[in-house]
Amino acid sequence: MTELTFYTNPMSRGRIVRWMLEETGQPYRTEIVPFGAPMKSSEYRAVNPMGKVPSIRHGETVVTECAAICAYLADAFPEAGLAPPTTERGSYYRWLFFAAGPLEAATSNRALGFEVPADRQRMIGYGSYEDVMDTLEYAVSQTTYVTGDRFTAADVYVGSHIGWGLHTGSIEKRPAFEGYLARVINRPAAARAAALDEAATREMQGA
């Protein structure tokens, strides 16, 4: 079996990938990368030149960026059923990359206290924060999951963003968001991932 290595920090977006890995049901090895010098070291930059986590190495294949990792893992382990058939991937790609682009940009700017001036919204990929929130509500309100009645890697990614955004206040509290989050987070893989990351956090803090 090809070795799968997960580079992460439990206090990072690596939590998204941990959940995705647990959904695949595949064995993997975890390497915790501390923030600061270790994450910016030449050794780790050989894995991810950005000097950020998460990253994965699957045999000789290295993948970075959370959305890309989620999509890769869904394709690498099709038996887990985390990606729709190729002919049915419109909504899957649409909302996976909406969350990776407009949603993350809008919520990050919101967290930093930056608001795009009304006369400059055409210059920004997401337009306005309000447009992004309304679009996100549409995405999670039409069906049980963002692709329909089937849970996929897109729900891992979108659900993670909504969970973090509701926790930090970068996403407005709306019934549609809270209802969707309740549907996706109540999964054994999500619980296992959270427990592993909490344990890793305690170990780091106690070191």
Rounded mean pLDDT is 96
Q: Provide the succession of SSEs.
A: EHEHEEHHHHHH
- What is the global morphology? globular
Largest sheet: 4 strands, mixed
Number of strands: 4
Strand content: 5-15%
User: Helix count, per DSSP?
Assistant: 8
Please give the order of strands in the largest beta sheet. Answer: 2-1-3-4
Fold blueprint:
Blueprint: E1 4-8, H1 14-24, E2 29-32, H2 42-45, E3 55-58, E4 61-64, H3 66-76, H4 90-111, H5 129-141, H6 153-168, H7 175-185, H8 188-206
Parallel strand pairs: 1-2
Antiparallel strand pairs: 1-3, 3-4
Helix pairs in contact: 1-3, 1-6, 1-8, 3-6, 4-5, 4-6, 6-7
Describe the overall structure:
The protein is of the alpha+beta class. The protein contains 8 helices and 4 strands; from the N terminus they run βαβαββαααααα. It has helices spanning 14-24, 42-45, 66-76, 90-111, 129-141, 153-168, 175-185, 188-206, and strands at residues 4-8, 29-32, 55-58, 61-64. Strands 2-1-3-4 form a 4-stranded mixed sheet, with helices on one face. A hairpin with a 2-residue loop joins strand 3 (55-58) and strand 4 (61-64). The longest helix is centred in the middle third of the chain and has 22 residues, at 90-111. The mean pLDDT is 96.
